[in-house]
Write a structure and sequence with these properties.
Length: about 500
């Protein structure tokens, strides 16, 4: 049968039964266990296990519920790792965007990108003024070190004078013995603060404060600075805003375009976007030239089962599948594929022009997507998480996702989210582990009521109980039960599972 012809019958069924208020419905075909395949993470052959289904159409709420049970999509194909069998267990990971804290590496990446945009300097390059200053300092240092040696005279045995040569300290020879020992920066800052407090005490501005000892100062925990205070660390948004200065050397533009259904802006940049993808796959992933075709690109990163949705007074662009494009001086250099869902933005893939690898675009785009997620929260209060795909603890190159704090991993048994720092000891001991700490916790949504699973058969939507009465010899009960357990009963009672 043609699944594209199901809309009238499906809507008619739901309007009579009252099972759904809106007219959009998810339609899937369950494919069951996929044959063992090659693992791109550990390199082992035929050791990767997944279950999958083909999604002809899917609501954003259904997909939200699916990724909260460990599912992901590649184009219109949805898959779920078989966690207790696969060689490299893949744990869904998400970051609570509102509480995200940058580390030093993140800040360094943002400053590096903005240095290139504002000043045109790549990593390691200096401005002409800075290079001249460094050259001058080097020459002055050389002159000092090559000057006359200090000579002191002492009287030796027999009244003879002995010369002692004392060379001036040179760079790289250790601390200068003629100067007092250096103090830790934390201690210097505390002493400076105490001096200011002492001055205020003399003026009677503040109550007396107990002076800390050196030991106390060395172990002092910095006071948490309130937001907006003069010395408060810059927020992610403040740091990203530093890219917008007057007369920058380069112009950076970031555009969000709907990719499915294709917007006019997406169509106008399609060829350019595909060429970057092809170049990226061949250079970074070493794909042969004939593999990243336009058809493969479309099937992988353009086609999506997600049905676009807009809510009056909500997000301006609505929900669904998008491409976030990065342009420098009118040239497309990178594309982040995103799904905007009721509770999160979900990162699908990133590809970029390898000529711009020096900008660390993987990290920079993730920070931009986190900031984008935060910007959506005022209009969509439930949208607060940034999903980064899968975290693979047994694969060193995939552990970087754990650096975006606070992050949480999905327990493969209970489908609860757990702080990654609490999960790491368990994963160090075993690459497959139950992450939920409570032994009483169970997967209530995975308890299957087979009769309530929604079926699409012969252009008609019906619960499995009716389908079984119509086709008593279908013999697919075990497969339908497995499907319902994997997607959860909330989805199983909403999505239409195609059965012949």
């Amino acid at each position: 049968m043609g699944l594209n012809s199901t809309r009238f019958e499906v809507n008619s069924y739901h309007s009579h039964t009252g099972m759904m208020a809106n007219s959009e419905t998810s339609v899937v075909q369950y494919r069951g266990a996929r044959q063992r395949s090659h693992c791109g993470y550990c390199g082992h052959g035929f050791s990767k296990y997944t279950h999958g289904m083909w999604a002809h159409a899917m609501t954003v709420q259904d997909y939200q519920d699916l990724i909260d049970r460990g599912w992901r999509r590649s184009g219109k194909y949805c898959y779920k790792p078989t966690m207790d069998k696969t060689c490299c267990p893949q744990y869904a990971i998400r970051c609570r965007s509102g509480d995200f804290k940058m580390n030093k590496s993140h800040k360094k990446t943002v400053k590096m990108v903005h240095r290139y945009i504002n000043q045109g300097l790549k990593p390691g390059e200096k401005t002409e003024e800075a290079a001249a200053a460094v050259s001058a300092n080097t020459k002055n240092s050389s002159k000092k070190n090559s000057g006359p040696e200090n000579v002191t005279k002492t009287e030796g045995k027999g009244g003879q004078e002995k010369k002692h040569l004392e060379k001036c300290p040179t760079p790289g020879k250790g601390a200068d013995p003629s100067k007092p020992p250096c103090k830790k920066a934390k201690l210097r800052r505390l002493e400076k603060k105490q001096e200011k407090m002492a001055q205020k005490l003399q003026q009677g501005d503040v109550p007396e404060v107990k002076q800390a000892t050196s030991k106390e100062a060395a172990t002092a925990v910095p006071h948490k600075v309130e937001k907006g205070a003069p010395n408060a660390p810059k927020s992610l948004e403040e740091l990203l805003a530093e890219c917008t200065v007057e007369n920058p050397v380069h112009k950076l533009e970031i555009k969000l375009v709907r990719s499915c259904p294709r917007s006019q802006e997406f169509e106008s940049s399609f060829k350019e976007s595909y060429q970057i993808y092809k170049k990226y796959q061949m250079t970074i992933h070493h794909d042969p030239e004939g593999k990243p075709t336009e058809k493969q690109y479309t099937r992988f990163l353009v086609d999506s089962p997600l049905q676009s949705m807009k809510i009056p007074g909500g997000l301006e662009h609505g929900y669904g599948s998008f491409h976030q494009q990065y342009w420098i001086d009118g040239k497309l250099i990178a594309v982040g594929v995103l799904d905007i869902l009721p509770n999160c933005t979900s990162s699908v893939y990133l590809y970029y022009d390898p000529d711009y690898s020096f900008l660390s675009l993987g990290t920079y785009s993730a920070l931009r997507e986190l900031a984008f997620t935060r910007s959506l929260h005022p209009k969509a209060p439930n949208l607060e998480y940034y999903y980064m795909g899968y975290y693979i603890h047994s694969c060193p190159k995939m552990k970087y996702k754990g650096q975006y704090n606070p992050s949480f991993l999905l327990c493969p048994d209970t489908y609860t989210w757990n702080p990654i720092r609490q999960c790491e000891p368990k994963l160090d001991a075993s690459k497959y582990s139950r992450l939920e700490s409570s032994v009483e916790k169970a997967d209530d949504n995975g308890r299957v009521t087979l009769e309530e699973v929604l079926i699409l058969h012969d252009n008609q939507a019906m619960p499995y109980a009716i389908y079984k009465a119509i086709k008593p010899r279908a013999g697919n009960e075990a497969e339908v039960r497995q499907y319902a357990g994997f997607v959860g009963m909330k989805c199983a009672k909403r999505m239409l599972l195609y059965r012949s």
